[in-house]
Amino acid sequence: MAEPQAIYLSDYRPPAYRIDKTELTFDLDPQATRVRARLHVTRHPESKAQAALTLHGHGLTTERIAIDGQALLESEYRIEADQLIIDRVPETFVLETEVIIDPTSNTALEGLYVSGPMFCTQCEPEGFRRITWYPDRPDVMAVFTTTVIGDRQRQPVLLSNGNPIERGELPDGRHFVTWEDPHPKPAYLFALVAGSLECVRDSFTTMSGREVALEIWVEAQNLEKTDWAMASLKRAMTWDEEAYGREYDLDLFMIVAVDDFNMGAMENKGLNIFNSAAVLANPQTTTDATFQRIEGIVAHEYFHNWSGNRVTCRDWFQLALKEGFTVFRDQSFSSSINSAPVKRIEDVALMRTLQFAEDAGPTAHPVRPDHFIEISNFYTLTIYEKGAEIVRMLSHLLGEETFRRGSDLYFERFDGQAVRVEDFVETMAEVSGEDLTQFMRWYAQAGTPQLTARSDYDAEKRRFTLTIAQQTPPTPGQEDKQPLHVPVRMGLMAADGQPVELIINGESHGTDTVLHLREAEQQWVFENVDEGAVPSLLRGFSAPVRLEYPWSRDELSHLMRFDEDGFNRWDATQRLALIAIEEMMAAHQRNELMALDARLIEAFSYLLREPTDDRAVLAEMLRLPSEAWIAEQQRRVDIDAIHGARRAAIEQLADNLFPEFESVYHANQQSEAYAPTPEQMASRSLKNVALSYLVANGEVEALNMARAQYEADDNMTDVRAALTLLAHSDRADLGDPAIRAFGERWAHDSLVMDQWFATQVTRPQADALERVRFLMDHPAFSIKNPNRVRALIGAFTQQNRVNFHRLDGEGYRLLADVVIELNRLNPEIAARMIVPLTRYHRLDEKRQALMRGELERIRAENLSRNVFEVVEKALA
Ligand code: B3K
Ligand code: ZN
């Protein structure tokens, strides 16, 4: 087999032919579905008269190809390397094809496949070519009419994009529905669902007074889990009208829940298909975190209707155009509903741990890559999260109002078109008059910029001078980096805790301002500043960078107490904890006693005693930096020292502050019925953090509190928190019965069983890996289902660092075995799961050798493009 080749952005050519109308007929059959396509094709005036027509297709059994009703002879076309090439075609014509596909054996879950009792599709980015011959590229947009024929009994429900225009009965117990989608769309937004489904209906009146029917389709047993998604959808529709002036554009909006799904969900026009884990919820089965995640994903997919569907991407290199903007939109939506600082803290934590790690690893890529082998590998944190940070920076640079004018103009100007990142940024430049040339580098340069700041105080002149330098490290294929345009939001906190007025060159900037760092190094002089002012830098994480500043511990405690910016109060606490933990790691490495810095205990004591009106933020402040974030700071990562030191820090905080944690735990108990409201979620979050410290202290009394909370069985948030503490404790006599009871009780609910899997395999105890192997044989586990794989294998390899990195190499071997199997079944998931194995560069030599050995073993297989691309990069 030939080695997969990379595709380059610089090779982009516009399509030679456009398709005005696409007519599809599906005759559904689990093993042999017949797909008939009629494409109304016209040559673009700019392309050559002799231009060949090129269509994509993968795994199709072709039965007929005809032009204007005339079947083609074998000499009149070629099929090679997943392409159908017809050299001579008229200027305008109808191309008819008829193919057979096999949805049942489609384990890649791309194209048309079978999930439980239903047929469903996933076409983004290149799944449509597994359905029929087609120019499967986002810059070919057509109006679709789709007829779905199915068995009346087994597929009573037949759905596709747009509005149903005709339905009827056919011989042999078959029936059909014809759907018409009036909005031109690329093939990746096509969707089809058929099966035995039930539906919950609601409606929404748009700002112009149009009535939109809302439908959520699920298997009958899930009807009771749809309320939250429906409520979230309506909130999202209202928000998009208010915040962006965007109205929904069809009479019907449908969501379908599917059990086997590679991602969270998909924004198909008028027919969003969701991973059931990203849509189904109720208090008994779903945690607060998942309620919020569902709210965010429902909104995200809905928002794509404008940022993605009405205005789409010219080519897949522009993926962040729709994803970055839409993530920014869903983040803004969520923070308008829940605690805004906590939402920011969560998003930044994700950026700083996982995205920074991606940016520093072998698969680092720019937000707009310039080449790829397999585009499915680029649905990454860099494209999504860093892409969103870039849009956020733009919105700060322009100010909210100008940004809104820019987005209005963007939607209006490019409606119905397939565009590039430049079109978005240039529109923003146009409405604001800003020069965004340098800013564009954010899309082109991979790697996380490192900011190094220092200050100097002149007591005589009462001047505070801040110097900030920037440097972006080299990444694979990009040795030299240019300075970026970095917005640094900041303030100064005076020694008495008051904000300092910021005066630069005699001009006041209030107490909070944005510095524009554009050079490799720049300096700012603040006048009229008293001695002892502490800089609060990068407020709200105003740019996706690492920042170093030599804050003393006293200065960090000061910021923790007084900073006006909630996000930076949290960040100061994290930095303070990090210093303490790093000190303990050093002791761990010297085999000495690990003593926790008294200043951190003092800081926590202050946090626990001080009244606060934002309990959700307080809960976040009480969580120590994650192992992943600690590892991100180390030049050489010592897995065991990180785990040991962090664990010891938690235990010592618990020992010193037991009564404080206990009273927080009791003060945040709830008497009213469960609701996923921000107030209740804040209480539960705080209560459960407190409980985790109490249990860490090791007193039986605390474990009994956890058991009581588990047995009270009030809601999944509290049950899962307690179960995790029991299952992760050394007390098998408490953990095992709880795990057993939970597994029996929820055996019928696969989404809860996923939580059960994940809880067990994230145990820090040495038997975690053996549990993974044991649970892989559990009847509820299936390697073909991505949710199960993520719950069991993903949770273990990504959230159980000590055990995944076992020195006997068993963790690596287990992951490699799974990847080898998934490579054959589901390459997209295989390429995602392999990632932890590629992050070996900063580990000790022994582990590096073991990990590379497993990567070599994988490389010797017959690899999919997906896995090939990742392994090649990792071993380069
Ligand atoms: N646009 C989809 C991505 C699906 C791609 C899967 N290979 C999900 C989203 O971002 O909304
Ligand atoms: Zn998206």
TrEMBL record:
InterPro entries: Aminopeptidase_N-like_N (IPR045357), Aminopeptidase_N-like_N_sf (IPR042097), PepN_Ig-like_sf (IPR038438), Peptidase_M1 (IPR001930), Peptidase_M1_dom (IPR014782), Peptidase_M1_pepN (IPR012779), Peptidase_M1_pepN_C (IPR024601), Peptidase_M1_pepN_C_sf (IPR037144). Its cofactor is Zn(2+). One of its GO terms (molecular function) is metallopeptidase activity. Residues 23-189 form the Aminopeptidase N-like N-terminal domain. Residues 554-876 form the Peptidase M1 alanyl aminopeptidase C-terminal domain. Pfam families: DUF3458 (PF11940), DUF3458_C (PF17432), Peptidase_M1 (PF01433), Peptidase_M1_N (PF17900). GO terms for biological process: proteolysis. PANTHER family: PUROMYCIN-SENSITIVE AMINOPEPTIDASE. Aminopeptidase N is involved in the degradation of intracellular peptides generated by protein breakdown during normal growth as well as in response to nutrient starvation. Belongs to the peptidase M1 family. This is Aminopeptidase N. It comes from Kushneria phyllosphaerae. The lineage of its organism: Bacteria, Pseudomonadati, Pseudomonadota, Gammaproteobacteria, Oceanospirillales.
